[in-house]
Amino acid sequence: RRLAILASGRGSNLQALLDAIAAGMLDAEIVGVFSDKLEAPALQRVEASKRWSRDAKAYAHRSDFDDELAEAIAATSPDWVVCAGYLRLLDAGFVARFRGRLLNIHPSLLPAYRGLKTHARAIADGVAEHGASVHFVSPELDAGAVIAQATVPVLPGDTPDALAARVLAVEHPLLLAVVALAVAGRIAECDGTVLMDGHPM
Ligand code: GRF
């Protein structure tokens, strides 16, 4: 199965998938890494021929960038498109084009803390638990059907960075588990509901 990855930054989630593929634990191929940042470190994790990046801020309209991104992704014929640390909203046209095979990992227990700065907000609220979610992408930010979540405790004295590191450690196996289900053809989205092996979860 062919995977296209969207990433804006470091790319440790991408690396977790690459490591699993190299270890024979994930039957998939990364066919492209796509970024809205020209110098995203994530790009360096794959060979040059698989890198695509543009400076999204240089485009006058969001849809101009997203249309070009969608064309570049479609050219790699992916079975699944995975947002792994992609920090930019995708427009409705992009989501419509890939809907049902478009996944995102988000560092919170959705529906709590959509958007950015999730760790600082969780600490400020004094919640006992935080974590990460993998979901199908819908047009509304971080609002698509949740496939799986992983939970960590929020500890006394936590800083946003300390909590982010604890969450990141569970993000990698969580994303791998969901991508493995995806490439095995075991998950699907139907009318905003996740189907596992054809049954609502
Ligand atoms: C992860 O916490 C991801 O959930 C969030 O941004 C971070 C990206 O990490 N959206 P990396 O680029 O995969 O290392």
CATH architecture: 3-Layer(aba) Sandwich
Cα-to-Cα separation, first versus last residue: 23 Å
Task: Quote the average pLDDT.
Answer: 97
CATH topology, anyone?
A: Rossmann fold
List the secondary-structure elements in sequence, H or E.
Answer: EHEEHEHEHEEHEEE
Family: Belongs to the GART family.
Organism: Noviluteimonas caseinilytica
Site (Raises pKa of active site His): 142
InterPro entries: Formyl_transf_N (IPR002376), Formyl_transf_N_sf (IPR036477), GART (IPR004607)
Q: Could you describe the 3D structure shown?
A:
The chain has 201 residues and is of the alpha/beta class. It has a single domain, classed as 3-Layer(aba) Sandwich (Rossmann fold). The chain has helices at 12-22, 62-74, 92-98, 118-125, 160-183; strands spanning 2-6, 29-35, 51-53, 80-83, 102-106, 129-136, 146-153, 187-190, 193-196, 199-200. The strands form two sheets. A seven-stranded mixed beta sheet has the order 3-2-1-4-5-6-7, with helices on both faces. It has a three-stranded antiparallel beta sheet with strand order 8-9-10, with no helix packed on it. The chain binds 5-O-phosphono-beta-D-ribofuranosylamine. The site of 5-O-phosphono-beta-D-ribofuranosylamine has 14 residues, from α1, β5 and α5.
